[in-house]
Input
Amino acid sequence: MAVKTYHIGIDLHGTLINNNEFLSEGSSDALIRVIKEKPSDIKLYLCTGNDLPFVKRKMGGIADLFDGAILETGCVVSTDMNKEEIIVTQNIVSLIKTLENTLLDCDYPEVYKFARRLATISMFTKYEYPLEGFFQKMKDDLQHLDYARVTRSSVAVDIIPIKHDKYRGLEYFGKSTDVYIAVADSLNDIEMLKKADISFMPANADPATVELLGKTKQKKPLGSQFDQKSLYISSKPVTFGVIEILENIYKNYTSF
Output
């Protein structure tokens, strides 16, 4: 029988850290403990729309406890938490960078910064402008694109090459017989949550994303049996929710 590896992708913003970009207060020791206690056939990856310097800056030494990172919504990976590797074709990267220059010239009043990206575009909005409104505006403005799509996290509007998402980035680390598990909270995680063998969300998950996933998955509390048609919701938010989910997975993952 082939040996399975269980690959767990854990979203950063809104899942592992809050919208102020911090771990939940008092959670760091418990998080370190649960990461170090993972069974040998489980691998943990940070998943984010951000780049590796941001991850290292926000997570500090905790980042190095992970087995790798899925960056820029699955368009860039890090296998050692030190180097970034673009997994998008150079032709598409060139198109994305040309589009970014065009958008910079638009000088959108809603945007306070374009973040450093290698293969995607991330636009962070000012607090006085609702993120959802700007997201819908960009979707309408860029609906003609055949090489990229518009999505959002809990803090930014992202433009991502088509056929790339966090799940594809997670698959980069494994093989077809492995098991892929998603732990995430918002719209730019939806493909990973849809496609994963097992899907989890923290208690603070984005309601609109939960509703969309509810069309194909049944919402359930954490339990002892896992299946692909269910969406498991922790009883706790953000970092403590992730800790609760990981502890639940460790106890029951071999049942899948």
Notes: The mean pLDDT is 95.
